[in-house]
Write a structure and sequence with these properties.
With 287 residues, the chain is an alpha+beta fold. Helix content is 15%, strand content 30%. The strands form four sheets. It has a six-stranded antiparallel β-barrel. Strands 2-13-12-16-17-11 form a six-stranded mixed sheet, with helices on one face. Strands 14-15-18 form a three-stranded antiparallel sheet, with no helix packed on it. The longest helix has 11 residues. It is globular and about 40 Å long. About 17% of the residues have low confidence.
């Protein structure tokens, strides 16, 4: 488990949108889903990528060169979309990670369900998202969570195949979080072998870490990646592929969570597979 869920939290406030589910999807490759609106995440043409010198093959080559190496994440526009999750405000301890994902309301983040909802206790309340948090500084603001959406199968039974949550954050200074920072696209049914970058916030540190590697199929409903030092606090860290040099954004195809709530060793992490059930959850969160 990569989050630090405090037992016995008093559950108040936020309204959880737990949608109905017929239960875990059958084994096999998840079915395809309709595409999501792209918003700020519209991909470049091959000519645009070439103009920046970064086409898809070069990006994959760069990830392969440093595969499985974890280092401090630099304060880049892509990393600015990732933030630490705190209780109350940024003065306390951060216990999970989340990131901005494209939506029509421009106010959506994605994280692991176990970060925000314990099936035995209920929903965790009074949470804030701090994108770009670094050494006590909050360069991109503090965004309180207004509502949380998890799948009914997670809320009822802790279904590891739906360890995913979406949350709407409150506007600040008259602006939505996506207007300020941009957003990654949500990637559904992208397959199992992907070159991704995983960025998150260990609860023991004050700066984010990042690592790139290829994902593999843990099961038809789970992904796995090998990256060292992803300890408590990194639950919810986005798995980002298909970096767009023009928009400085990518596509989120997973978050640390799922099997063993993200993994019971710091060197191997898991994610629920983003298939049609995650698409339905997204639709519910944004509907």
């Amino acid at each position: 488990m990569r989050g630090r869920w405090a037992a016995g939290v008093l559950v108040l406030g936020l309204a959880v949108g737990c949608g109905s589910s017929a239960g875990p999807a059958p084994a096999g490759t998840p079915s395809s889903s309709p595409s999501l609106p792209t918003g700020t995440g519209t991909g470049p043409s091959s000519g645009a990528a070439a103009a920046h010198g970064w086409d898809r093959d070069r990006i994959k080559s760069a990830i392969a060169k440093h595969a499985g190496t974890t280092r401090t994440a630099k304060p880049t526009p892509l990393n600015a979309l990732v933030g630490a999750v705190f209780t109350h405000n940024s003065d306390g301890d951060h216990f999970c990670t989340a990131s901005v994902v494209d939506s029509a309301g421009q106010n959506l983040i994605v994280t692991a369900a176990h970060c925000v909802y314990d099936p035995l206790v209920g929903q965790r309340s009074d949470l804030v998202f701090v994108p770009g948090y670094r050494d006590g500084e909050t360069p991109n603001g503090v965004w309180p969570l207004a509502s949380i959406t998890v799948d009914r199968s997670w809320a009822d039974d802790g279904d590891q195949d739906m360890d995913v949550a979406f949350a709407i954050v409150q506007p600040q200074n008259g602006q939505q979080v996506q207007q300020v920072l941009g957003a990654n696209r949500l990637g559904v049914d992208k397959g199992y072998q992907l070159a991704v970058k995983v960025t998150g916030y260990p609860s023991s540190g004050e700066v984010p870490i990042t690592c790139g590697n290829l994902t593999v199929e843990q099961s038809p409903t789970q992904l796995r990646i090998d990256c060292p030092d992803y300890t408590g606090g990194t639950s919810g860290s986005p798995w980002v592929t298909d970096f767009d040099p023009t928009t400085k954004t990518g596509t989120v195809v997973g978050v640390i969570g799922g099997y063993q709530q993200g993994g019971d060793t710091p060197d191997t992490s898991y994610s629920s597979y983003f298939g049609d059930r995650v698409q339905a959850l997204y639709d519910r969160a944004t509907g």
